[in-house]
Amino acid sequence: MTVMVDRTTTVVWDRALLDYDMGEHPLNPVRVELTMALARELGVLDRPGVRMVTPEPATDADLTRVHHADYLDAVRHAPLDPFFHGWGLNTDDNPVFEGMHEASARICGATITAAEAVWHGTTTRAVNVAGGLHHALAGRASGFCVYNDPAVAIARLLDQGAQRVAYVDVDVHHGDGVQAAFYNDPRVLTISLHETPLTLFPGTGFVEETGGPGAEGSAVNIPLPPGTGDAAWLRAFYAIVPSVLRAFAPEIIFSQCGADAHRLDPLADLRLSVDGQRAAYLAMRDLADELCDGRWVAMGGGGYALVEVVPRAWAHLLATVTGAPIEPATPTPMPWRKFAAERCPRATIPETMTDGVEPAVEHWQPGTTPDPVDRAILASRMAVFPLHGLDPHDPRD
């Protein structure tokens, strides 16, 4: 790892990243296209210190650090065979498409590029909004994800000497693929806030999942009840994430920033606003600044309100990574509104960068507000805090 002096940001981008396209499917790449267009119109990509970098696809050697070689063969072969079956491919969730291996490898390459830029001191922060495909498993596609770019990039840094990598996942779905990849590796801390697996895919992410033998405490899960909104979600975040990160003392932080915890998302049942998501990005930035000299790699992830939510959420993310956050009341630029209407004629085009909410940060106190979110907080703290030498009942920890 190289220590940086100047604060810069690497934004990894290439229109070829839009080739990860499953056709008539919730994971429509237009959400990424509109995100980058909005960020560009807002001037975020032209800020001083921003480096735009074009990625190369990940190699087979990169991918097989996480995925099985015969699975890579299956991904290459599946688009050539209309009757292909197996490996989680050619299903409703994971339909095959032409160039699937190449498109998936390019997304992994983009996150590797972001991670290495930060690790080697080329930049302080980096972002790949097309990344965050956190469900892919070693030998199986899952949850719209073919290859697991966060896991592949983290594995690359481990090979280059990283000893303490923290991964924070705020997607509405549990980050199961990343957790599985490093469940027995004490060098990687995975933290996931998600809707309870009792009601939502992938059915994992219970508080009892805390890491394998020799890596106890390396997995932290915060499953939240349906209907959780900004204030309660942020209360859960602050009650657990900062304490565990401080105890772990990461050298670098990865964040998967899926936008599907928003109240308008059609595939889940949390109730965050864009303003609450913006607050989460600011919190993760501040933790990176506090704990690892700002070294932060951010990715996109889920998000299926393609126009109403994702572009605004991730434009806020890009602004947070590249410098000053965007003021919530900022109007969305008229050229972007016209472009969004052309690309998605039936969508409601948002006119500002806010949902009109001012999220309050409520500090958790044991036993004072015994609602379902507080029970979830206490259960998570009870499961994992002692493994980090922390007191689950002490709100100062």
From TrEMBL:
Q: Which residues form the Histone deacetylase domain?
A: 25-320
Cite the annotated pathway. Answer: Ketone degradation; acetoin degradation
Spans through the membrane: none
The UniProt keyword set, sorted, is: Acetoin catabolism
Any one Pfam family here would be Hist_deacetyl
Q: Does the keyword Ribonucleoprotein apply?
A: no
Q: Does the keyword Cytoplasm apply?
A: no
Kindly list the biological process annotations in GO that this record carries.
acetoin catabolic process; epigenetic regulation of gene expression
The terms under GO molecular function for this entry are: histone deacetylase activity
InterPro entries, per the entry:
AcuC (IPR003085), HDACs (IPR000286), His_deacetylse_dom (IPR023801), His_deacetylse_dom_sf (IPR037138), Ureohydrolase_dom_sf (IPR023696)
* PANTHER family referenced in this protein's UniProt entry, alphabetically: HISTONE DEACETYLASE HDAC1, HISTONE DEACETYLASE HDAC1-RELATED
Q: Which protein family is named in the record?
A: Belongs to the histone deacetylase family.
Report what the protein is called: Acetoin utilization protein AcuC
Q: Which taxonomic lineage does the organism of this UniProt entry have?
A: Bacteria, Bacillati, Actinomycetota, Actinomycetes, Micromonosporales
